[in-house]
């Protein structure tokens, strides 16, 4: 039998007033983010891929929550420098330009492009966190940078 633990919903850390921790997208309470700095971490892949895309020269990333929304956004943007990418259920989306792995987003492919990106959990979490005063994408590669942002 796996033991169950009651985990804290609020933790006081150093000089921070409060730190809310939500372990799933469904737990996020957007109303608590209004004046907060929020870090979205999708440990499996999305935030790592999104940060990599920006590092490699993309102009903008548009996180979306469905295949329909991705196609609609690409059509709305209406210029040739738009790529669709991402995954659903851990599998590439048929008809998208790229899947979800960082290596697919080479500098040659994404430089000066807008990326419409879909993921099973990460982009939903980003969308729910939009009310935040400051929204950051965290991952294991940029953990130190996120930690030292004032």
From TrEMBL:
Reactions listed under catalytic activity: (2R)-O-phospho-3-sulfolactate + H2O = (2R)-3-sulfolactate + phosphate
Required cofactor names: Mg(2+)
InterPro entries assigned to the protein according to its UniProt record, in alphabetical order: ComB-like, ComB-like_sf
GO molecular function: 2-phosphosulfolactate phosphatase activity; magnesium ion binding; sulfopyruvate decarboxylase activity
This enzyme's EC code(s): 3.1.3.71
Keywords of the record: Hydrolase, Magnesium
SUPFAM superfamilies found in the cross-reference section: ComB-like
One Pfam family it belongs to: 2-ph_phosp
Domain of life: Bacteria
Membership in a protein family: Belongs to the ComB family.
Full protein name: Probable 2-phosphosulfolactate phosphatase
Organism, scientific name: Salicibibacter kimchii
């Amino acid at each position: 039998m796996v033991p169950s633990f009651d985990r804290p919903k609020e933790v006081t850390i150093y000089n921070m007033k409060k730190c809310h921790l939500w372990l799933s997208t469904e737990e996020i309470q957007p109303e608590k983010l209004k004046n907060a700095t929020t870090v979205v971490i999708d440990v499996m892949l999305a935030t790592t891929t999104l940060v990599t895309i920006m590092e490699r020269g993309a102009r903008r990333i548009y996180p979306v929550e469905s295949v329909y929304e991705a196609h609609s956004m690409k059509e709305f943007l209406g210029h040739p420098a738009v790529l669709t990418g991402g995954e659903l259920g851990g599998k590439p989306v048929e008809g998208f330009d790229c899947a979800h792995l960082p290596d697919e987003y080479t500098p040659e492919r994404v430089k000066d492009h807008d990326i419409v990106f879909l993921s099973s959990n990460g982009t939903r979490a980003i969308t729910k966190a939009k009310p935040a005063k400051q929204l950051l994408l965290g991952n294991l590669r940029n953990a130190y940078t996120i930690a030292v942002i004032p």
